Task: structure prediction
Amino acid sequence: MADSRRRRMSGSERREQLLDVGRSLFAEKGLDGTSVEEIAAKAGVSKPVVYEHFAGKEGLYAVVVDREMDKLLVMVTAALTVEADYRRKLELAALALLEYIEESTAGFRILVRDSHGGTGRGSFASLLSEIAGQVEHLLAKELDHHSYDEKTAPMYAQMLVGMIALTGQWWLDTRKPRREDVAAHVVNLAWNGLSALEPKPSLDPRRRAKERERATARAEKAVEKAERAAARAERALEKARRKVPASLHEEITPVDA
Result:
């Protein structure tokens, strides 16, 4: 009796249900490891219903991939087009990718699997190329501003996007540290390079400024300490010179720096 009272799904609702089911199975088993029978069984429908909506698992997979690519591309594009300085844009883009991974784990697992011909727009690599194309325009302006060759922008865009994407794939399973810290560290490397890494990177400009102040203070203290040591050495040398005959003074001379 309960079944007879259950509201029948509309065509669009059934389509969305099949997409949710397919997304879950494709994330777990991939396209090759998932069958139409499994999709139908999990959705509680017959195989012909799956074929009616998507003409088979390949058609369903293609729609799932396109949706996930669009979702991630929209998130990253929004980060790259905010009114902010270039470092902040990079931080927000890294955060967008990590947020997508955290909130759409199944979708990201599907995207990073091997691509299949004829299934929508293709692979994760093609998505990264789209994102790199947007980063390229930003980098070209920044490189030109610093009198660097803007023709190298495409190469640097691929480097930056690839570094963040691979970090995201690593973080997919580890989930540690938290995404804000991961974003801060990856941007630290991308922005500063290995030779100028910040000891405690942060996404907060105020915290970064305080860290720079602390680093400057530590450097000044180190210089003062070295100067005091040099002064003590000079006094010790002068004391030693006074204790020996004048004829031997020339043998006690400071060592050249």
Remarks:
- The first helix runs from residue 2 to 5.
